[in-house]
Amino acid sequence: MAPIPLSPISVGHIDDVQEIRKAKPTSIPKRFIRNRAERPSLSTISPLSSSSTIPVVDLSKLVKGSGDEFHREISKLAVSCDEWGFFQVINHGIDLDLLESIEKVAMDFFMLPLEEKQKYPMAPGTVQGYGQAFVFSEDQKLDWCNMFALGVEPHFIRMPKLWPKKPLNFSETVEEYSRETRRLCQKLLSFIAMSLDLNKDTFEDMFKVAVQAVRMNYYPPCPRPDLVLGLSPHSDGSALTVLQQGKGSYVGLQILKDNTWVPVQPVPNALVINIGDTIEVLTNGRYKSVEHRAVTHKDKDRLSIVTFYAPSYEVELGPIPQLVNENSPCKYRRYSHGEYSKYYVTNKLQGKKTLEFAKIQAQNYSS
């Protein structure tokens, strides 16, 4: 049974960043201005170099299933998950025309009049719909971002009234895109299992009918990008997250590595993949979820499309026995994914704080 989270506070048009942008404000509303310690600072951002470049994994070499190329790529995947928690995947098998189509319908949706978008408000008790998620108090700082999120699989999590009538081909494009990203996640999880010397079907067998959701994020230009965040630092509660960065956007995604924010430079036609909290728990911390955030730009807008892939709500999670030993004692307790999902969506985004839910508190393990 799906968890029933608390209702986020609704955010009205006065806090809609596209509407704020249209008004050409001379100053940023206070609800968006971050405390000094949270503001994006060039001094805490790594310059782009070969040592701070997110690994790129070629899925076509893994799909071949054998040979030197396969073993090199599996090793690269293992290093990506172990040292970064992020990688970009090329030759992923999703038609490039479909990637363009999903970007187009997403942007067309965000460009609709506010009155049209407000027909699909973030519904009580969920994080689906149009608005700002993870907002629980009137004094909480808001992200410089408009979101539109939908539950996709299994069908009982869907809220049909939130699927837009405009643009006309929105729903069919999201359906096709979601089918393809689901297949991609299944393939990637089989290779991640193999990189851990587990049976390739380990995750698929465990997850049952996996939960899948899609979220579209639109970041309008911001007159003071040094004062705001597009998306607060957080790790994802999913098993895997697939991120499509809109073509032509500025470099807005940053990940936290060695206490430094590293920008994720888009690779043409690649998708960004990151490990979620669920994989961290299942691998007993060997593969860690990583904090990431989005920043804004003074003159440019940015679109991203995010797919979250996670176990069925009733699945009980805990470290896989083969990954617990004397050198790596059990770091996480057992719980149902539904419990964690409910906990995750009823707390604001605060780095990796939500993962405290799963940790065995008697031990002092770093995350």
TrEMBL record:
PANTHER family documented for this protein: OXOGLUTARATE/IRON-DEPENDENT DIOXYGENASE
Keywords, ordered alphabetically: Iron, Metal-binding, Oxidoreductase
Residues of the Fe2OG dioxygenase domain: 202-311
Family: Belongs to the iron/ascorbate-dependent oxidoreductase family.
Superkingdom: Eukaryota
One Gene Ontology MF term: oxidoreductase activity, acting on paired donors, with incorporation or reduction of molecular oxygen
Organism this protein belongs to: Actinidia chinensis var. chinensis
The protein, known as: Fe2OG dioxygenase domain-containing protein
Species lineage: Eukaryota, Viridiplantae, Streptophyta, Embryophyta, Tracheophyta
PROSITE patterns with a match to the protein in the record: FE2OG_OXY
